[in-house]
Design a protein that fits this description.
Elements: E1 11-14, E2 24-29, E3 33-38, E4 44-48, H1 49-55, E5 56-61, H2 63-66
Antiparallel strand pairs: 1-2, 1-5, 2-3, 3-4
Pfam families: DUF951 (PF06107)
Organism: Thermoflavimicrobium dichotomicum
Protein name: DUF951 domain-containing protein
Length: 68
């Protein structure tokens, strides 16, 4: 299985939506665990990298495209 490429500051879409209704998350910390923040309600979640890669659907906006 090919590893998914993502970076710090990317906006990603997950397979299941957050209870607030949005499905877009911003990656705010990378390491063995990935911390992401919901773009709808700013709730922060920490997931192990493997679980994050399994649940990530696609990258919506790359950090370098957003101008950060």
């Amino acid at each position: 299985m090919q590893r998914k490429e993502f970076g710090l500051g990317d906006i990603v879409e997950m397979k299941k939506p957050h209870p607030c209704g949005t499905n877009a998350w911003k990656v705010i910390r990378m390491g063995a665990d990935i911390r992401m923040k919901c773009t709808g309600c700013n709730h922060s979640v920490l997931l192990p990298r493997r679980r994050f890669e399994q649940r990530m659907k696609k990258i919506l906006i790359r950090a370098e495209e957003a101008g950060e």
